[in-house]
Amino acid sequence: MGFKNKFITILLSMVMVTSSNAGNILCIIVFPAYSHQQPLLALSEKLARRGHNLTVLTTDPPKKPIPNYTYIDMSSAYKNLKEMDEKFGFNLQREMSAAEIFKKLPQVFSELCDYELGLPQVQAFIGKAASMKFDAVLIENQYYSSFHGLTHKLGSPPVIGVHTFVPWSALDEFMGVKVNPSYMPHIFSHHSDSMTFLERCFNTFLYWYNWYLVEYELFPYQEAILKKYFGTNTPSAREMEFNKSLLLVPADLSVAYPMSIPPNYVRTGTFHIQPSPEPLLKDLKQWIDAAEQGIVYFSLGSNMQGTSVPREKREIFFKTIRRFPKIRFFWKYEAESPLSNVPSNLLIRKWFPQQSILVHPKCRIFISQGGLQSTEEAIYYAVPLLVIPLFADQPHQAAKIEKEGAGLSLLLSRLTEDNFYDVISSMLTDPKFKSNMNRLSSLSKDQMVPALDEAAWWVEYVIRHKGARHLRPQNLNMNWIQVQLVDVYGAIVAAALFVLYIIYKLIKSIVALIPLGKSKKGKKAKSKRS
Questions:
Q1: Which terminal CB of the chain, N or C, has fewer other CB atoms within 10 Å?
Q2: Are 316 and 415 in contact (CB under 8 A)?
Q3: SS3 state of residue 90
Q4: 31 phi/psi in degrees, rounded to 5
Q5: Phi, psi of 385 (to 5 degrees)
Q6: Is 44 within 8 Å of 138 (Cβ atoms)?
Q7: 3-state secondary structure (DSSP) of residue 176
Q8: What pTM, to 2 d.p., does this model score?
Q9: CA-to-CA distance for 400 and 194, rounded, in angstroms?
Q10: Which of 273-276's residues contact partners 24+ apart within 8 Å by CB, and which partners?
């Protein structure tokens, strides 16, 4: 960027900050996983830098003080999430099918909300809420309806949801999106938007099953927690869920699919990407520089720990890595003690600066679980993906990457040394994967305004316009009979039946006037004379 463009950007940013009144903004980030926390943390810090006062309920508080930024620490929820394995069999350290996740989500989300709302520091904040004034509330857009009781206690300021997944049909309906399972794949499906007949059948079943769980399990659970912490005079969980002013969706069309959306549903692009990541530490840079044919970065994300990989699969990784002696591998693996039998071309650590590695020109493949934030980073830095999906939205991202020709996928349960070696070899030798990822990367970067600036502008827009209710489509104020035109079609059918009934009665009346009886008697008399 030239000096002139830089100057214009800085000047525009200064004008936008000084022209907008500083607001008090509450940010609620419920799920204890850094990948879920990242988008809202990035947005809340951006808003603080623009002069707004932020209060943030988070499981990942900042390590350094941030001006205009107060946080309420909910990090003990990580321990609570681990305990859910014993309670409900909900374990993020293994593959889980869509059926398993659906079965456990209502209890898991409710347990999490109950735990966090009951924390002493959160209770202290709730106790002061009635005397506090907030201009807007940002909340992770998930099934955490009980937290909307806090919004009600604050006097019902505008609520802005922020997606931490790609578009999710049952959640998007809260914003007035008209969901069509024929071309909108459910987030827990393994399908792209190009589905066969059987895949459309399965996708439709997932959508309706998701709807059933929300209406008859999730909402009742959340309603009970809502009343427990905020009293019986609070509006219903369902009512408040449908009352959000705006939804910000960081997933752009490089990682998600096209769909029709109303004005209160805004796709901005990724929040958390660092266009210029921090330089690599000296030892990591030396390790990469010494790689003859490049590097492969391997991480299964912030939820799945490397130590949870079964030993036999770990040995497959080791054997396969040895078969690429001129490629150097990084593996984020949370081992407490050093592993034995580690290949000489493999570097293992508990943590790596992921974006700083992906941006390096020698990074040739990213082996990932396919979480949204990791997928967005791979696309932004144009690194082909080998996806090993485990649960939730990860198979969905794997299907998107394969459809775009920007990578391949393998199930951990079906992974062998041969198929693992084959896919890595294919991705290293076939230029189409890099070419297609370059195309997606170009798409993700081609924005009129940086995503974080756009998201911050929309938050300020909602504050300026006192909730921006003009963005909400009217179908959010109608019942399903009116939205689906059941009453209109019913009236048309009733009118048609009435017309048919009138025609029938007319025909019957006309037929009754015809002297059929006399003609028959005349014929009989004639026959007797003859």
A1: C
A2: yes
A3: coil
A4: -75, 130
A5: -110, 135
A6: yes
A7: coil
A8: 0.89
A9: 10
A10: 273/355, 273/376, 273/377, 273/380, 273/451, 274/355
Which of helix, strand or coil describes residue 320? helix
Decide: 297 and 366 in contact? Cβ < 8 Å: yes
328: its two tokens: 């150097």
How large is the greatest C-alpha to C-alpha distance in the chain, in angstroms? 127
Sheet of strand 24-28, all strands in order from the earlier edge strand to the far edge: 69-73, 53-58, 24-28, 136-140, 159-162, 246-249, 265-267
Contacts of 527 (CB under 8 A, 6+ apart): none
**CA distances (Å), origin 391, targets 39, 120, 283, 400, 423:** 20, 32, 34, 15, 21
Q: What is the pLDDT of residues 123-163, one digit of tens each?
A: 999 999 989 999 999 999 999 999 999 999 999 999 999 99
CA 200 to chain centre: 21
Q: State pLDDT tens for residues 251-305.
A: 999 999 999 999 999 999 999 998 889 999 999 999 999 999 999 999 998 888 7
Q: Which two tokens stand for residue 469?
A: 């209710």
What is the Cα–Cα distance from 36 to 78, expressed in whole angstroms? 13
CB 106 within 8 A of CB 218: yes
The one-letter amino acid at 321: I
Nearest 5°: phi and psi at 296?
-125, 125
DSSP 8-state secondary structure symbol assigned to residue 314: H
Note whether 252 and 167 are within 8 A (CB).
no
The 10s digit of each residue's pLDDT in 183-235 is 999 999 889 999 999 999 999 999 999 999 999 999 999 999 999 999 999 99
User: Reduced to 3 DSSP states, what percent helix, strand and coil does the chain have, rounded to the nearest 5?
Assistant: 50, 10, 35
For Cα atoms 230, 232, 235, give the angle at the middle one, nearest 5 degrees.
Answer: 80
Beta-carbon contacts of residue 410 (< 8 Å; ≥ 6 apart): 386, 387, 388, 419, 420, 423
Alpha carbons within 13 angstroms on the beta-carbon side of residue 45 total: 16
Cβ 330 vs Cβ 368: under 8 Å: no
